[in-house]
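Input chain follows. Return structure tokens only.
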Amino acid sequence: MSTAPSALFVCVHNAGRSQMAAGFLRELSGGAVEVRSAGSMPAEQINPTAVEAMLEKGIDIRAEQPKVLTTEAVQASDVVVTMGCGDACPIFPGKRYEDWALEDPAGQGIEAVRPIRDEIEKRVRVLLSELGVEPVA
């Protein structure tokens, strides 16, 4: 039995970009990919504008909480996608790393967050095809 591929999204606060990416991957993979997200310095709460932007796409991430990045989470993941956390992201040999240089949605209005969200969705769809998973939506 093959195990599902797994992906970890990491940004500094785990409140916006990584949460949106995790939401898209969970939704689009229909559970075929194990999804984790974390931050090197997690925020108190998820970015409400990111939540709003995702709700517009029919994806509810309100129940998510920013989580601290652990080496265990990295070791348990096949693909690690970093989003501007730089040196705070631990590197393990044999892992596939991608760095998505995306603008931080923190403190921005919905008009500024929508293009970031849409770019994340595009990249998540590419990642799915690279993992050999057919998107459900």
